[in-house]
Amino acid sequence: MQTIDTLINARWVIPVNKQRDVLEHHSVAILDGKIIDILPSDQASSQYSAANTLNLEGQALIPGFVNTHGHCAMSLFRGMADDLELMTWLNDHMWPAEGKWVSDEFVKDGTLLAAAEMIRSGTTTFSDNYFFADAAARAAIESGMRAQLCPPILDFPTNWAQTPDEHIDLIAELIGKYKDNDKIKVIFGPHAPYTCSDEPLIRIKELSEQLGVPVQMHVHETEVEVQGQLDERGNRPIRRLKNIGLLNDKFQAVHMTALSDEDIDDIAEAGAHVLHCPESNLKLASGFCPVDKLQKRGINVALGTDGAASNNDLDMLGEMRTAAMIAKPVAQSAVALPAYEALAMATINGAIALDWDKEIGSLEVGKRADIASIALDDLESQPIYDPVSHIVYASTRDQIKHVWVDGKQLLNDRELTTIDKAAVIENAQQWQKKIRG
Ligand SMILES: CSC[C@H]1O[C@@H](n2cnc3c(O)ncnc32)[C@H](O)[C@@H]1O
Ligand SMILES: [Zn+2]
Asked: How far is the centre of ligand 2, averaged over its atoms, from the C-alpha of 221 (Å)?
């Protein structure tokens, strides 16, 4: 008998491994935050003596979701400006509100609110593209989640920094500060082609090479952006980034609509990653990402919610379903993005995009124990021919019951263990009063 920390016995284990297995009546053994075994449950009890055993009859274990793109603190702006085109939403609503309200305290409170919502919907890793990233890091650490922080760089002054160089210097400092933290990565997050001139992009390219750090950027969010850049700079955004040298296998391109065949060739040749945010693209009428076409070219496509001010939730289960549904009419094929591939997009593909796939993204021996359990035993999930089909096409986030990061339980039967839910609600309501008052 080997002594371990946790043994989880489940009706299904869906590892999202290369073979795309679905294991029935299996158990996951956890020691020191790592998965040390996945084996049939009838063997587990005689092999392992666990400090903590959970019997999750009727539940499936999946890798925790990896939400590759968002603006956590913007949760405090949820529902403030809906039903608008992207540039109206940004110019007339978000940027003025950010100028007035965004601070260290705003980011800490907003990021905790976002983390609580993400944990309760099965997300274990998030990427955050926002100002005052040290406050976001503190919130991530308090929540117990894993986070990639990509603080932004823009040509114009923000509440966080006055110049592009000042933004870059702050980011470089944070990269140093968190370099030894296993659960926090800091990378560069230049905002978009239309807010970043060549000079800061060249400096970001040089620093990202020097420090071995990825770059995440909104690119090709709308046809208007592509046409505007073509008129202003004589190049499509993807070609401009390629010319600057930013397009490589550490580049995370958010949105990617309005793509030409040459754009797709450039991304494929560079090995860059596409972070697809279907619900934000739908709500802002931004455009469609050709997921099936990209995947057929071997491009890694991962999933993100974007911020709660343009989505308006941070629900990766819902995002995955939307992604699966929308990929089909976009490809004009019902075969495009089948259920298991949609689940892969929300988990292992995200880990690959964030260069974290050696540690997370699938349930495999040796990986960190970042796990979510989902209940499939109620009426709405009956009968079950294929649990993956139900997870993608017929489940909602209230079915997420338990969540672990690094083997530590962050959600226990839908109760948050690291975040004070009442305090988060109270803070959010206080911010709403100040903002609207
Ligand atoms: C890049 S840091 C935050 C910066 O981005 C703005 N923002 C939020 N969502 C989007 C989006 O979908 N496209 C472009 N810019 C976005 C946010 O308001 C911040 O100013
Ligand atoms: Zn965004």
From this structure: 9
